[in-house]
Recover the amino acids of this structure.
């Protein structure tokens, strides 16, 4: 652990600690967001970086391949996200796609 902490300190040298923390929190949020989509389940994501400091983001299934997001963080009325993945029950690549809407 000490070696990892030393490496992290070395890599973070010269960066703003507050900016690093904000970016870390954003990665945690986006990871939780993607897991909720892939598992087709609702999620509440706390400590999401926002213009006001931090927010709580809620998302949940709103029909087939649709998710409602609140508060709505995007400028567009709907955002479509997609990726390719391998599902455990099928070794071939399959496209995954979701429409995000205000909720």
């Amino acid at each position: 652990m000490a070696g990892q902490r030393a490496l992290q300190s070395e890599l973070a040298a010269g960066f703003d600690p507050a900016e690093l923390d904000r970016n870390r929190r954003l990665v945690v949020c986006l990871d939780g967001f993607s897991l909720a989509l892939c598992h087709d389940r609702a999620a509440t994501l706390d400590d999401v970086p926002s213009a006001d400091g931090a927010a709580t983001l809620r998302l949940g299934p709103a029909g087939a391949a649709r998710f409602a997001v609140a508060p709505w963080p995007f400028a567009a009325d709907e955002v479509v996200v997609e990726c390719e993945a391998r599902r455990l029950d099928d070794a071939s690549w399959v496209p995954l796609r979701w429409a995000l809407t205000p909720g």
Q: What stands out?
A: The chain has one domain: 2-102. The first helix runs from residue 2 to 12. The chain has two helices and five strands. The two ends are 42 Å apart (CA to CA).
